[in-house]
Amino acid sequence: MSVKPKTPDEIAHMRVACRLAAEVLDYIEPFVKPGVTTGELDRLCHKYMTEVQHTTSATLNYQPAGYPPYPASICTSVNHQICHGIPGPKALKKGDILNIDVTIITPDGFFGDTSRMFILGEASILAKRLCQVTHECMWLGIAAVKPGARLGDIGHVIQRHAEGNGFSVVREFCGHGIGRKFHEAPQVLHYGRPNTGLELAPGMIFTIEPMINAGKAAISELGDGWTIVTKDRSLSAQWEHTVLVTETGVDVLSLSAACPPPPALVDGKIKVAQPLAAPTASPA
């Protein structure tokens, strides 16, 4: 597998794109509460992207070969939905867990990608623990990124932590390179063996986005052609950051003012930049 590192100019553009994607999540957070529909969250995010940021959604009308056009500006995956959940009229309720996945395109054609979990009200102990462990999995994967490390190192630490806590790792979906295209090489698996796979080099940019199930790893696809759910209907969680391999380690590009901080178990393993300024005013 050949992966061309990004140039300094491309990296600068990607910093902006990923910050903007994260700011969409900052903006929408106050609206994520029981009673709101995922369709309304999609409407608000779309308006914020187009009217405040002057970005466009990478998911709206996205149509890989063999798929229908994706009909929304964000993905909203609730409870047992793993990924690619389509926003709609059903209202969220207390105890739900929700992943919102945002990918924007800047006016100069760069993609920024990130996702975050939201817990509505007082969720079950299992739901909270699943969201926490999945967040830890993502950050352990991030902490494994450095020049000379291999992709298998990332997958290995994620799999070990998830399975060590009694959860399972979805294998059909993975992280990916990103830049002027939504999906580029390399594919970043969230399971694997250490010291295997592509060797990381400065300038590489990719997402780390583990999908972790409370039950078994098996998946099903709903009839809409997009929404992926757990086959056993157990809860699922996902977190996602876009990262840059630097000369000395890793830089997380999709940080923002309201982004949850790294968990304690990666303290000392990774340096995180100061939070960025809060997003601009609401268009709601």
Structure description:
By secondary structure, this protein is of the alpha+beta class. It has a single domain (8-266), classed as Creatinase/methionine aminopeptidase superfamily (Creatine Amidinohydrolase). Helices cover 25% and strands 21% of the residues. The protein is built from four helices and 15 strands. Strands 1, 2, 4 and 5 form a four-stranded antiparallel sheet that branches. Strands 3-12-11 form a three-stranded antiparallel sheet, with no helix packed on it. A hairpin with a 5-residue loop joins strand 4 and strand 5.
Q: What portion of residues is helical?
A: 10-25%
Tell me which CATH architecture applies here: Alpha-Beta Complex
In total, the number of domains comes to: 1
Order of helices and strands: HHEEEEEHHEEEEEEEEEE
User: Radius of gyration from the CA trace?
Assistant: 17 Å
Q: What does the largest sheet look like?
A: 4 strands, antiparallel
CATH classification class: Alpha Beta
Q: Any low-confidence stretches, pLDDT <50, length ≥5?
A: 274-283
Shape label? globular
Tell me the structural class: alpha+beta
